[in-house]
Amino acid sequence: MTYNCLSLFIRKFEELNKTALEERHKRDHKQLLQPLKPDASKKKKIKADLLLESQNKRKKRNQEQIDRLRRELSTESYKKMIKRFEQVFHSNLTEFMTLLSSNSDGHYNSHLFNLCIQLDYNRHLSQVVQKL
Questions:
Q1: How far is the C-alpha of 12 from the C-alpha of 59, rounded, in Å?
Q2: Is 132 in contact with 94 (CB distance < 8 Å)?
Q3: From first to last of its 132 residues, what are the pLDDT tens digits of the chain?
Q4: Which long-range contacts (CB under 8 A, 24 or more apart) does 23-27 make?
Q5: Where do the domains of the chain lie?
Q6: Residues 100 and 120 sit within 8 Å (Cβ to Cβ)
Q7: The pTM is what?
Q8: By three-state DSSP, how is residue 74 classified?
Q9: For the CA atoms of 45, 48, 52, 53, what is the dihedral angle to 10 degrees?
Q10: Cα–chain-centroid distance for residue 19?
Q11: If we measure between CA atoms, which residue out of 65, 72, 69 comes closest to residue 57?
Q12: DSSP state of 34
């Protein structure tokens, strides 16, 4: 009986040893193939390089857009257009405030008077009307 237990133990030990040997061979094989694949540090460096490249491209595009806008904003036609918009806006605003204040004289239209005061809270609109 001892002999059977001993032989059983030896077989079990050999099976485990064989399994361990196979696993070791698999690990060794993977390690041999590993230099062919980029390791984690190389992958991180590649990602960092790609990120840096995309950031540089974005900065370049932004700078090109800024330069184009500066050129467009400095043209005389743009300055004239803005000046014209400002004139039309102030004339319409003056007309609106004049109508609003003329209609707010009545007793029942106190809310219109309050609206005039709120719209002209910093007296900017009154100054613009006086200039025109």
A1: 67
A2: yes
A3: 444 555 655 666 677 667 777 887 777 766 666 655 556 677 778 888 888 898 899 999 999 999 998 898 889 998 999 999 988 988 888 888 777 777 656 665 777 777 777 777 677 777 766 666
A4: none
A5: 1-37, 38-74, 76-132
A6: no
A7: 0.47
A8: coil
A9: 60
A10: 54
A11: 65
A12: G
Q: Give residues with Cβ within 8 angstroms of 28, minimum separation 6.
A: none
CB contact at 8 A, 90 and 128:
yes
Q: Which tokens is 45 given?
A: 């460096």
DSSP state of 38: -
Give Cα 82 to chain centroid, integer Å: 30
Tell me the two tokens of residue 41: 């540090």
Q: What is the DSSP string of 86-132?
A: HHHHHHHHHHHHHHHHHHT-SGGGHHHHHHHHHHTTTSHHHHHHHH-
Q: What one-letter code names the amino acid at 88?
A: V
Rounded to whole angstroms, how far apart are CA atoms 29 and 35? Answer: 11
